[in-house]
Design goal:
- Helix 2 packs antiparallel against helix 3.
- The N and C termini lie far apart (37 Å).
- This protein has three helices and 18 strands.
- 14% of the residues lie in helices and 48% in strands.
- It has a domain of 178 residues.
Length: 274
């Protein structure tokens, strides 16, 4: 009989004086949380999540609940790339629920996810934003182990992300990629590329000048692939499609820098595990 993971993670951040503190940390394997770091001072708490099994197999069920109390600031990342292994039929599931209270700010930057051929994966993310709260996050997905010439054949990737404030939707994004050649090579699919990535900022209005600056970073960066930058009613969405995860991350860090300076008057601080 095959053993599946049923991992749980609960994190809660509070403000004590001027410091953001991880006040509650509960993890059931394969989740593990490393100690809090403060590379940019007490206001922003950096935390690194670890998947001790290295990746998902068919049938795994992982869930996480993250709560930021008022005026806290946290940056979460992962210790390494996440792998979605080949499945004989069962889905791997991940459910993430994030609550961000008044004036709080979360930056969620997991490292690359690699979806193997014949993997079956489904994830849901729901983010609840209070007034004046913001969330910045990215996702970088490599479809197939391209270093060994593998394509994402016979796989299924499904993702649903929702951001709400006061029971009103701010941003809803649904993705489904079925691993057949027609979809992998179609302009309506991956268009022959291996990587699809998104950078999202939500919770505050973005001025048109910032959108222009972000588009300029792409044009001046000589990146390979294609991109898109969209200003939403309460944030922005940037898309990358190409073959280089390092290009996606480099461009996303430029976007992050522009946002940080604009909204926090603070330069970015790259996590040391990168």
């Amino acid at each position: 009989m095959t053993a599946y993971w049923a991992g749980e993670l609960e994190l809660e951040f509070v403000k004590r004086n001027q410091q953001t503190v991880l006040s509650r940390s509960y993890a059931v394997a394969p989740w593990k949380i490393q100690r809090s770091l403060y590379p940019e001072g007490e206001e922003v708490c950096h935390c690194v999540l670890l998947h001790t099994a290295g990746g998902f197999v068919g049938g795994d069920r992982l869930s996480a609940k993250i709560h930021l109390q008022p005026h806290t600031q946290a940056l979460l990342t992962t210790a390494s790339a996440t792998k979605i292994y080949r499945s004989t039929g069962a889905d791997s599931l991940q459910d993430l629920h994030i609550s961000i209270d008044e004036g709080a700010s979360l930056e969620w930057f997991p490292q690359e996810t690699i979806a193997f051929a014949e993997s079956q994966y489904r994830q849901t993310t729901r983010i609840e934003l209070a007034p004046n709260a913001t969330c910045t996050f990215w996702e970088i997905i490599r479809f197939g182990r391209t270093a060994r010439g593998e394509k994402f054949l016979n796989g299924n990737w499904r993702s649903q992300t929702e951001v709400w404030r006061d029971q009103n939707p701010l941003w809803i994004d649904r993705q489904h990629l079925h691993g057949i050649s027609e979809m992998l090579d179609s302009p309506n699919g991956l268009n022959g590329y291996a990587i699809a990535a998104s950078f999202v900022f939500v919770g505050a209005e973005v001025n048109p000048e910032l959108i222009t600056s972000i588009r300029s970073t792409w044009e001046e960066g000589n990146y390979e692939g294609v991109s898109g930058v969209t200003r939403s009613l309460c944030g922005l969405v940037c898309r990358y499609c190409g073959n280089s995860s390092s290009d996606a991350r480099k461009w996303f860090q430029q976007i992050w820098q522009l946002l940080r300076v604009s909204y926090k008057n603070r330069a970015i601080c790259v996590p040391r595990v990168w």
